[in-house]
Amino acid sequence: MSTVLDVFDKWKEFLADRVNAAQKLGMSDEMISKLAYEIGQFLDEKVDPKNDQERLLKELWDVASEEERKTMARLMVKLVDKS
Question: Which of 11, 21, 69, 74 places its Cα 20 to 30 Å from the Cα of 58?
Answer without folding.
Answer: 21
